[in-house]
Amino acid sequence: MQPKHIAIAGNIGAGKTTLCELLSEHFQWEVNYESTDDNPYLEDFYNDMNRWSFNLQIYFLNNRYRQIVEIQKGDKTVIQDRSIYEDAHIFAPNLHQMGLMPARDFQNYFDLFELMSSQVNPPDLLIYLKASVPTLVNHIQTRGREYESTMSLHYLQSLNDKYDEWIESYTIGKLLVLDVNELDYKNNADHRQFVIDEVSKKLKLPV
Length: 207
What we know:
Layout: E1 5-10, H1 16-27, E2 30-32, H2 42-47, H3 49-73, E3 78-81, H4 84-97, H5 103-117, E4 125-130, H6 133-143, H7 153-168, E5 175-179, H8 189-203
Parallel strand pairs: 1-3, 1-4, 2-3, 4-5
Helix pairs in contact: 3-4, 3-5, 4-5, 4-7
């Protein structure tokens, strides 16, 4: 049976969008990109995380939940650029831990996430892009988004730590971990083929 929902997980700058484009082109799957360019909170958040953290996380939660509902209603295979689980298990807890999201806001947010996630199925395959902080920084600098230039190395490392904890405990569906420190699927044809082969194996698709 053809898969319906593929989710790409990974830290800021891990290469999620590039992988979405690669898989979409090869398998003819549709992509739901993360809303960054049209996100009304993102720039404000990077300028004042304490003020805008709750607003930003609610925006992402709402956006991703709507995407999943539409994916599950439809009959096409869709790749989702970042999963709904990352907001709840990585970004919101990290903001709370850093003192940038008050406890009552975090609890309110997490209660809403638990309600939403109970109403949708997990992805047919979650692909996690594992990347070191130097790799992330290199990717972030290459794409040159101004609002990302103020991010600290500590912030990226803190997110990476939470990603590792979450992935170790991920048991709700199929998981493929790709080490992007060793892979350059954007520029290397052999690496692209390796990724395609690994995804095909996980989903039992014809190669």
